[in-house]
Specification:
By secondary structure, the protein is an alpha+beta fold. It folds into 2 domains: 180 residues, no CATH class; 402 residues, Alpha/alpha barrel (Glycosyltransferase), CATH 1.50.10. The chain has 15 helices and 29 strands. Strands 5-6-7-8-15-12-11-10 form an 8-stranded antiparallel beta sheet. Strands 1, 2, 3, 4, 9, 13 and 14 form a 7-stranded antiparallel beta sheet that branches. Helix 8 runs antiparallel to helix 10. The C terminus is likely disordered.
């Protein structure tokens, strides 16, 4: 070998090794920053434990002040969830809740009792005030226990209405006193009358008047400031921030702060009640991270990172993951991770977040192309695998049409009725408009991230893939009907059953201005299909499945509204801008209908009445429902997501 060639090769090898080492260093530093951020968030008093919103926990020590209620007939309740539908459950009306536990407010109604529970915390100190409300029955009791959670080691003692907390390590010592009409201390539970106010002081020594002033001061500093900041848009901001804050928890099985969709879902999926319990869903959590980025960088980062770190061995972010290594290893969900992270990055401009997540996003992007492609376009699918935990969703729907529907996120959508499944390719035999549009968007956004990280070859690869899929998606346009349709890969025919996902090409900027306007006039603004007093239904109003009004058949879902709205933002014509403004206004009205009357943020809504509470399978306090308000905040200029103009 020529010695100069040899020297060049050695030089090139050394350069590659150096680049690899530098990249690993960047990722390690990013991981250190993230770990530090998580530790900084997991501190202080908050409603951290998923199993009751009336359980105030001090992190990192894991000591809890747990509030239970007993009625005059001797019945007792220790489970408090917002929107709990179980028979005999307490009805919870959420009030304000700062992300960090600085101030919380909630009212519990149960078995004739109606009690307001407020808290104000600073560092290690916490004051909780429980106040009977007008019409609350007499003879009830408030039962307070101070105890350890999650097998944490603290010494706790109680004497009459007093308690003390000491860590085994000796680095914390707190004293507390409970004021009110004291009844007894029974088996380390402090029992007081619910007929009069109860004040729990931990680390403070307030009397009743001082406690009221302390709590009112925290209320003013949190609520009044936000009211002034958001003005006429406060209600939608309050709904969004509130549902995220009450759903925010610490989970000891992963030692992380996260914001699952709701506490009820966490408990339903958990097999480890003594150790917490959580479930994170893919696109749900990315949407939460976007909403959190409005005013909580730390929680936005935490959720984007934790769902991405659920990446499977096969290289995709799963539909769900929870404790005990239980995750959907057969299927992913809509690829919106780069949409969330790119927008978070636009606000905070911290490149280490991109460095931390880039490799996982690239694996996920390549996985779609390698595992879900037929005839040049993607299909939803479900790939068989060897079960790990042998729990329900490792065994049901795998390598079937239903598994593919679950991957779409639109579980029982009418679009996938009678669609055959290719068990060899592990795909529905349907090129899906929504999936391909989101994938093109993902390619373009990830290419932008690659640019930021100076990954030139990756950026070229991603843009090349975007162009290829864009050409294929353009072929799904039906000129006669001015719409994009899913395409059957077996019969080579359009599938005419549509949903809001058929507008997703707006996210990929595939239609030109003329096509976009035609889509809006003929379909989105058509009251026989998607328009109406309440918008937009997951099933067109003229489809037979609309009347089913169950889950993704006929009902309105905030994430569909959000993605269609974000697509509309890519276009700037008077006609489209007017439609976008109307769309944002109707989304806001839908959210506030239930929020202002009941304090609920629903998982989905009735497309005819605007109700969320008319069916059992609509969680009453599910955070992605707040996307309806997030749309309005973006439209009003409170938070701009830079998505328009990103495609090159």
């Amino acid at each position: 070998m020529n010695k100069y060639v040899k020297y060049f090769l050695l030089f090139a090898i050394n350069c590659l090794a150096s680049c690899r080492e530098n990249a690993e260093t960047d990722i390690n530093l990013a991981q250190q920053k993230y770990d530090e951020m998580q530790r900084s968030v997991a501190r202080g008093w908050n409603t951290w434990d998923t199993r009751s919103v009336l359980r105030h926990v001090l992190l990192p020590y894991g000591v809890a002040i747990d509030i239970n209620i007993a009625s005059s007939d001797g019945k007792r309740i220790d489970r408090f969830f917002i929107g709990d539908r179980k028979e005999g459950a307490a009805q919870m009306r959420p009030g304000a809740h700062s992300y960090d536990g600085y101030y919380t407010d909630i009212t519990a109604s149960w078995n004739g009792l109606r009690l307001r529970v407020e808290s104000a915390a600073d560092s290690l100190s916490n004051t909780i005030m429980i106040t009977p409300q007008e019409g609350s029955g007499k003879g009830g009791k408030i039962i307070i226990s101070v105890r350890n959670l999650w097998q944490r080691a603290n010494w706790i003692s109680t004497t009459d209405n007093r308690f003390s907390i000491k860590t085994v390590a000796g680095n914390l010592e707190l004293d507390g006193e409970i004021l009110g009409k004291y009844i007894e201390n029974k088996e380390k539970e402090i029992i007081l009358s619910a007929d009069e106010p109860v004040i729990i002081n931990c680390g403070n020594k307030w009397d009743a008047e001082q406690a009221r002033q302390y709590i009112d001061g925290h209320y003013h500093n949190f609520v009044s400031v936000n009211k002034e900041k958001y003005g006429e848009c406060y209600d939608e901001y309050n709904a969004m921030q509130n549902v995220l804050a009450w759903d925010n928890i610490y989970d000891p099985t992963i030692n992380k702060v996260i914001t699952p969709v709701s506490r009820i879902w966490n408990v339903g999926w958990s097999n480890s009640p003594d150790l917490g319990g959580f479930v994170l869903f893919c696109w749900d959590t990315y949407f939460a991270s976007m909403m959190l980025s409005v005013d909580s960088k730390e929680l936005a980062y935490a959720n984007a990172v934790e769902i991405t770190r659920g990446l499977t061995e096969q290289g995709f972010v799963p539909n769900f993951y929870t404790e005990s290594n239980y995750k959907s290893r057969d299927r992913s969900q809509p690829p919106v991770g780069t949409l969330a992270v790119w927008n978070i990055y636009q606000k905070y401009k911290e490149k280490w977040l991109l460095e931390l997540l880039y490799d996982d996003f690239l694996k996920w992007n390549r996985w779609w192309d390698e595992n879900r492609k037929t005839n040049g376009l993607l299909c939803w699918g479900s790939t068989p695998f060897e079960p790990v935990t042998y729990r329900y969703w490792e065994l049901v729907g795998v390598n079937e049409t239903y598994g593919g529907a679950l991957e779409s996120g639109l579980d029982n959508s009418h679009m996938y009725d009678d669609i055959p499944f290719d068990k060899e390719k592990h795909q529905q035999q349907l090129n899906d408009v929504g999936l391909n549009s989101l994938y093109i968007m993902d390619c373009n956004l990830l290419a932008r991230i690659a640019d930021e990280l100076d990954k030139k070859e990756d950026a070229k690869e991603l843009r090349r893939r975007s162009r290829d899929y864009s050409k294929g998606l353009a072929g799904l346009w039906d000129e006669n009907n001015s719409f994009y349709y899913n395409f059957r890969t077996d019969t080579k025919e359009f599938n005419r059953r549509t949903s809001p996902t058929n507008f997703y090409p707006l996210l990929a900027e595939t239609p030109d201005n003329k096509q976009a306007a035609e889509m809006l006039q003929k379909h989105l603004l058509n009251p026989e299909e998607f328009w109406g007093d309440w918008v937009i239904p997951a099933t067109p109003r003229n489809d037979p499945a609309f009347k089913d009004n169950t889950y993704w058949r006929g009902r309105i879902w905030a994430p569909l509204n959000f993605l269609v709205y974000m697509g509309l933002r890519n276009y700037n014509t008077p006609e489209i801008n007017d439609a976008r403004r109307q769309f944002a206004g109707k989304s806001k009205e839908l959210l506030l209908k239930s929020w202002l009357s009941d304090g609920y943020v629903f998982e989905n809504y009735n497309a005819t009445t605007g109700q969320g509470d008319d069916v059992a399978n609509s969680d009453k306090f599910y955070h992605w429902g707040a996307l309806l308000g997030y749309i309005s905040l973006i439209e009003q200029g409170f938070y701009y997501n830079e998505i328009a103009g990103i495609y090159e």
